[in-house]
């Protein structure tokens, strides 16, 4: 059976777990990672990566429809959903295989099976070939999360889908209802809308992308409607009546309930942590609404036991999971890592147009007692945006009026998911408006809108 005793055992090989394992191995620890399904976790197999591959097809298709505007000609654009999905699955497969190579290269032992804790430092792995026991003084729980299912609105894979079904859909929806306008819901709504489906999004909160700055949510709503999405905010789906090939949704809005028919429903109402079956209760690990309670170093309160990524506190994003993985590996190896600061982690939504943000919204900054200075710059004033044919969008920056510290940045428009990293670095370095103004941004780039937004906060924008 070989070695069963390690310095560290990581349970779950998603972006939290596999990155933690590799970093710990780099630091000289003898590491095993246990995975029950796929190396790469949700992110590589059923989340970040395959959705972006689908959205890329949608983007190219959308641009094909605009060929004439760019002086190009094209016979009627078309698509083959099976081929679009096959490309997405191939991309996911390539990256998941890459994780296997990386783990091997770093001499991390991969054990396929379902893990649970028999005692602190004692891990039982169950698989088709039986049961094995592993031990280590340190265990990182990185078991991630799955789609939340609301009673009566459960997925069946045929008429009602979760993200997993939507990533490998049995058909092209014609009339689609998306429940929830967070990043996952909006990305699928955007994808199927671009391919020509008639899409309705129902959001219980009073605005779309509810975690974003209110002004960005409002611009996003306007853009989504312009692109043909039907959006109902302050509305909720109470019931789904399923019949052959048809779902009748009871949608409550403004105090009354309407019924609307759809051929497909995607439920995107959040996630729940994979806390079950791990043996947490017996160890006294605290769980709050399906997520493990941890301190700023991801410690669970049980000696040597850590929880990272989607299993632990928000934001539930892959880069947060990976960063926590690195931090915990370094902590275990006796280094002195900084805790992860959730307010400096960017959130990105790859819809049409894209949305990205970091730090505090204007409202949140005010709530926290900051007197704020706000800069806004529209993409219509940016040369590169016009040249790209992407004038839709805005960059909003929020500064502390007294110290000039960058508190938050909020963007909507082309490629903002690539641009936001500039402000992330700024947040990490606790930058001020003066330093951002001193920075010279290359021309012509969309990033100049980031500079102009800072200038606008001081009433100094040049191109508007
Ligand atoms: C459709 C979709 C799109 C997304 N897009 C983005 C995006 O663009 N950007 C972004 O940052 N985030 C995105 N996310 C979120 C991102 O996927 C997660 O934040 C990330 O995967 C969390 O990483 P993790 O390592 O904590 O968990 P996971 O990736 O969920 O990995 C956990 C792993 O643990 C394994 N496991 C669970 N229990 C056990 C057990 N008992 N024994 C052994 N193995 C176990 C699972 O099989 C899984 O492989 C998206 C999510 C979805 C669903």
Q: Would you write up a description of this structure?
A:
The structure is a single chain. The protein has helices at 17-26, 41-46, 48-65, 81-105, 163-167, 183-194, 214-226, 280-283, 318-332, 362-367, 383-388, 416-428, 433-438, 448-457, and strands spanning 8-11, 31-35, 109-112, 114-119, 122-127, 130-135, 138-141, 145-147, 160-161, 175-179, 198-202, 230-232, 235-243, 246-253, 256-262, 264-267, 271-273, 287-288, 291-292, 305-307, 347-349, 355-359, 372-378, 393-400, 406-413. The strands form 7 sheets. A 5-stranded parallel sheet has the order 3-2-1-7-20, with helices on one face. The protein is of the alpha/beta class. It is globular, with a radius of gyration of 23 Å. Flavin-adenine dinucleotide binds next to β2, α2, α3, β4 and α9.
Tell me the overall shape: globular
Q: Helical residue percent? A: 25-40%
Q: Note the beta-strand portion.
A: 25-35%
Structural class: alpha/beta
- Largest sheet, spatial ordering of strands: 3-2-1-7-20
Helix tally equals: 14
Main sheet characteristics: 5 strands, parallel
Please state the oligomeric state of the protein chains shown: single chain
Q: Roughly how many Å is the radius of gyration?
A: 23 Å
- Give the mean pLDDT: 97
Overall number of strands: 25
Q: Could you name the ranges where pLDDT drops below 50 across 5 or more consecutive residues? A: none
Bound molecules: flavin-adenine dinucleotide
Distance between the termini: 69 Å
């Amino acid at each position: 059976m070989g070695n069963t005793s390690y310095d560290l055992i990581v349970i779950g090989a998603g972006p939290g777990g596999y990155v933690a394992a590799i970093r710990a191995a780099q630091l000289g620890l003898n590491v095993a990672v246990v995975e029950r399904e796929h190396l790469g976790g949700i992110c590589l197999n059923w989340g970040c990566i395959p959705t972006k591959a689908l959205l890329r097809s949608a983007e190219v298709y959308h641009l094909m429809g605009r060929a004439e505007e760019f002086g190009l000609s094209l016979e009627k654009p078309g698509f083959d959903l099976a081929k679009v999905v096959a490309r997405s699955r191939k991309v996911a497969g390539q990256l998941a295989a890459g994780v296997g190579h990386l783990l091997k290269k770093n001499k991390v032992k991969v054990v396929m099976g379902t893990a649970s804790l028999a005692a602190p430092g004692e891990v039982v792995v169950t698989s088709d070939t039986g049961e094995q026991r592993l031990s280590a003084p340190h265990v990182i729980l990185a078991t991630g999360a799955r789609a939340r299912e609301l009673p009566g609105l459960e997925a069946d894979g045929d008429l009602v889908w979760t993200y997993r079904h939507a990533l490998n859909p049995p058909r092209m929806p014609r009339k689609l209802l998306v429940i929830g306008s967070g990043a996952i819901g909006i990305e699928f709504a955007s994808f199927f809308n671009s391919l020509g489906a008639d899409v309705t999004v129902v959001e219980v909160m009073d605005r779309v992308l509810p975690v974003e700055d209110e002004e960005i949510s409002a611009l996003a709503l306007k853009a989504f409607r312009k692109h043909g999405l039907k959006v109902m905010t302050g509305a909720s789906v109470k019931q789904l009546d399923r019949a052959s090939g048809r779902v009748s949704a009871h949608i409550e809005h403004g105090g009354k309930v309407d019924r609307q028919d759809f051929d497909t429903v995607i439920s995107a109402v959040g996630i729940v942590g994979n806390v079950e079956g791990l043996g947490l209760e017996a160890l006294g690990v605290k769980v709050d609404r399906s997520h493990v309670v941890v301190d700023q170093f991801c410690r669970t309160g049980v000696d040597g036991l850590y929880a990272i990524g989607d299993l632990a506190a928000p934001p539930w994003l892959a880069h947060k999971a990976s960063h926590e993985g690195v931090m915990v590996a370094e902590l275990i190896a006796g280094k002195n890592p900084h805790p992860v600061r959730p307010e400096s982690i960017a959130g990105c939504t790859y819809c049409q147009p894209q949305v990205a943000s970091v730090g505090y919204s204007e409202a949140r900054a005010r709530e926290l007692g900051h007197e704020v200075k706000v800069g806004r710059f529209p993409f219509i004033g940016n040369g590169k945006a016009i040249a790209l044919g992407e004038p839709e969008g805005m960059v909003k920056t929020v500064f502390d009026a007294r110290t000039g510290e960058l508190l938050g940045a909020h963007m909507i428009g082309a490629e903002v998911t690539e641009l936001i990293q500039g402000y992330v670095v700024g947040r990490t370095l606790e930058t001020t408006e003066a330093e951002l103004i001193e920075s010279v941004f290359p021309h012509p780039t969309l990033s100049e809108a980031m500079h102009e937004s800072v200038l606008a906060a001081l009433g100094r924008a040049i191109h508007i």
